[in-house]
Amino acid sequence: MPEITKSYEPRDVEKRWYAAWMAADAFQAAPATGRESYSIVMPPPNVTGVLTIGHVLNATIQDMLVRRARLEGRSALWIPGLDHASIATHAVVERELRKQKMTRHDLGREKFVERVWEWRHEKGGVILEQLRRLGASCDWDRAQFTMDPVYSGAVLGAFAELFRRGRIYRGKRMVNWCPASLTALSDEEVIMKPVNGTLFKVRYELVDAPGQFIEVATTRPETIPGDVALAVHPDDPRYAGVIGRRVWRPLNRAEIPVIADSAVDPQFGSGALKITPAHDRVDNEIGLRHGLPVIDILNADATLNELAGPELSGMERFAARKRAAELLGASGALAGQEAYAHNVGYSERADVPIEPRLTWQWWLRYPRVEEAKAAVRDGLIRFHPERWAKVYLHWLENIQDWCISRQLWWGQRIPVWYRKGLDRDRLTEADLRDPGKIHVSVEGPPDPENWVQEDDVLDTWASSWLWPFATMGWPEPGAMAREGFERFYPTSTLVTAPDIIFFWVARMIMAGLEFTRPGEPVERRIPFRDVFFTGIIRDAQGRKISKSLGNSPDPIDLIDAYGADGLRFGIISIAPQGQDIRFQEDRIEGGKNFCNKLWNACRFRQMSGPVGDNSSLRAILGRIRPAAFDADDHAILDRLLSATRAVDRCFAEFEFSAVSQALYGFFWNDFCDWYVEVSKSKLQAEDTRANCLALQDLVLRQTLLLLHPLIPFITEELWSQLGYSGPRGRSIMDSVIEDASRCATELGTLGAKPDPAQAATVERMKAFVSQARALKAEHNLASRRDVRFLLIADDTAWATVESNLAKLARMAGAAEILRRGAVEGAPAAVTALGTLYLDLASAVDVGAERGRLAREIAALEKHIAATQARLANKAFVDKAPPAVLEGARRQLSEQEAKRAELERLLKSLS
Fold first, then answer.
1. What CA–CA distance (Å, rounded) separates 151 from 144?
2. What is the pLDDT of residue 841?
3. CA distance to 86, 93, 101, 181, 405, per residue, from 96 (Å)
4. Which stretches of 346-421 are DSSP H helices?
5. Residue 141 DSSP symbol
6. N or C terminus of the chain with fewer C-beta within 10 Å?
7. pLDDT digits over 691-738, tens only?
8. Cβ-contact 840, 893 below 8 angstroms
9. Residue 548: pLDDT band by 50, 70, 90 thresholds?
10. What DSSP character marks residue 333?
């Protein structure tokens, strides 16, 4: 068996083991049909993307779940893939074209799409390679791309089917419009940014009362030529006499009515609102309610058209804003202006303000909305944290039709053909259902020379909403059989960010219910059973980590510095469920330190003596003699079972940060800092050495299994180095982890079930040593081993100390521990084994010790007061379970006893 090297070199280990896993097809879902299945589909990152710290968190959690499922004996599938990301990819390729002084229109549609495919094959998908460095155990042979022919066929087929079912229509409605990319955008592609603008106060003169005005506040005077009315709140007394009258529009002068609508906020500005239905969502809704005309004064590129009037026509929108203010001022219609901070929506990719715009688009009436609500409300789909269920249900209660078309060239081109010569913008709903005017199919019309295909492509989300089942061969039955649809759908868990709960999670649920297993129960058609929402990662100042702020660390740099396992352990340790995450690089360094601790502990074990038969749990148990156990042996087995129970529970409850904390505490504190240290004397004795080594082998085996989902590389390496892989070199991934119940059963069968009483005694000794060390450290004596402790203890406590005297003195770093009946004038601590005094005679600063005791008493007083308040609260006493109530009373009693002892100590120093 090769010797474990002195230091851990993660880069070499990671490269070697990932290659070995790939060569062994270790990530492929096992074909055995008798095993329970577990499946995850990776939220497909953009093909343009590179690894971010958010991806690290998301992928690490997914990998933990999949690796844990394998260890539990399940057939586990993790499908990776990439999203074609229409607008993002457009932006990247068009940026390359601009360097050549070209646009996509210079190339034409076909050549541009060819250019995008070339870019995708040359540079796209870098993130998947980076995920391999992180250790992602995906079934890479099943990687999907949303523009692959088979997947695209599924997307287009879904469109055609939804059109056939009457759920898709074409209509002119308001959308988010990017005047740079010249396309509609989803809300997810719009970023709100704070802007320091100007609020213009504009006067509209009453037609029938010259010299009387209604003042309106607006940030966009350039849109005044598109005004078709002024609106006021019907209950606003200031305007009771003007409703129904008319005013003069001050730019491109015309009469417009004054109307009443409850959507107007009387508190904003003057309480009067200019209504521009073509350029504002609220205005558009008001216009629809009142049957107002629509005047669209903007071109697609946000320049003003002829409807804006001769003074503004042809101008860029921001230049037109300045010019409009000048014209208003010159005519006396500008009552004033002031600085105004507000939020403006920006195109995420083009980084320009978006325009609300009325355009012809394809729309989807969402299917299965009520079933989608019931699936979550009835617990068939569980959200973690649970609070996101309310957000999801609220959105579904107020759902609006989905704009599924985009004015781009890269993406699934909408499978609609128009009969040549038709005016698309005059088509009625009946025309859309006339096969002589409209053809909808994946294959296209049989006589293509008589038809013209729709120019628009589908929204990227309209492809990714099929992700959980289109990645498994849907809708082609043969492909579904090959890809394991029947075994792996519904998938088990989705790990994603909460900001796409509407754009992706809700839509996938509706798609699964609409398209899969028609006629079967809801629980067979939902796309997943559990959804885990990660938190938002922020920097030390609380800002969301983003490229634009320059506060995003490069994960590859972190892997190079700390190892993939160090990064994984560190990021999980700071990511409690349901909370935002403060990124701290020192915690990633802490992950590396933990890996080094694990490496050194395993190296110490290998150096301590020959490694016996470690090929299975049974083999190790066969080397253990329970009759030779001492209290420390019972304690480490008890703590191992407790840690195993904690990890079992945390995985079941999606508390991943708690997994890392439970394992850190057990391995670092219970095993390394205590058991390994107290075992050193046993390793020197012939009669206890073999048993001690076997117990260490048992603990290390189970610890590596528990840790493997979180830190896979180092655990695989140490599994091999310590002989757990057996003579055939079996991977840790091919092993089966025993849960706490089975571990306890195996130990009980051997007669090695830990004794809780002895384990509790060791916990008291550990606390005693910890407090002894703290006393030394408090007096700058941490490194001294010649100090003497004095202990006032009852006979039972002293019997524990006396029988472990050499061990306690060695662990505390003391020359001796003596029993005394009374001690005066020495610093002290109340421990579980009695009151412990640090015997330093004149070396102690008595004043400082009095101050420390006073502070400890003051802190304890606060705890006592809080506990008393709880017990005085009738609601708490009436509702608390008996065990909780008894625990609170016991806690109060212990606190009061400790206070009395501390007060006695303080008095003794006076």
1. 8
2. 63
3. 16, 5, 9, 15, 25
4. 369-377, 388-397
5. G
6. C
7. 999 999 999 999 999 999 999 999 999 999 999 998 888 999 999 998
8. no
9. low
10. -
C-alpha to C-alpha distances, 166 to 158, 169, 365, nearest whole angstrom = 12, 7, 9
- Cα separation, 654 vs 383, in Å, equals 10
User: CA 704: distance to chain centroid?
Assistant: 26
Q: What is the mean pLDDT of residues 225-231?
A: 97
Residues 494-520: tens digit of each pLDDT: 999 998 999 999 999 999 999 999 999
- Could you tell me the pLDDT band of residue 908, with boundaries at 50, 70 and 90? low
Q: Which amino acid is at 712?
A: P
Is the pLDDT at 313 greater than 80? The verdict is yes
Distances (CA, A) of 887 to 757, 877, 892: 19, 12, 9
| Dist. CA 910–CA 903, nearest whole Å | 11
CA distance linking residue 462 with residue 162, whole number of Å = 12
C-alpha distances out from residue 799 to 499, 700, 745, 828, 830, Å: 60, 32, 32, 20, 17
Q: What are the residues whose beta carbons fall under 8 Å from the beta carbon of 741, sequence distance 6 or more?
A: none
- Whether 128 and 80 have beta carbons less than 8 Å apart is answered as yes
Residue 422 contacts residue 437 (beta carbons within 8 Å): yes
Question: What pTM, to 2 d.p., does this model score?
Answer: 0.87
What is the average pLDDT score of the chain? 93
CA angle 546–550–554, rounded 5-degree value: 80
Contact 814, 789 (CB under 8 A): yes
DSSP secondary-structure letter at 551?
Answer: -
pLDDT at 97: 94
Q: State the Cα–Cα distance between residues 261 and 649, nearest whole angstrom.
A: 55
β pairing state of 491-496 and 528-533: parallel
Q: Are 833 and 859 in contact (CB under 8 A)?
A: no
Q: Report residue 411 CA to chain centroid gap.
A: 27
Question: pLDDT, tens digit, for every residue of 428-437?
Answer: 889 999 999 9
pLDDT at position 842, please?
44
Question: What percentage of residues in the chain have a pLDDT greater than 90?
Answer: 78
Looking at this protein, which amino acid is placed at residue 99?
A: K
pLDDT of residue 845: 65
Angle, vertex CA 93, rays to CA 90 and CA 97, nearest 5: 125
Cβ atoms 367, 214 nearer than 8 A: no
Q: What is the DSSP letter of 301?
A: T
What single-letter amino acid sits at 159? F
What's the alpha-carbon Rg for the chain, to the nearest Å? 35
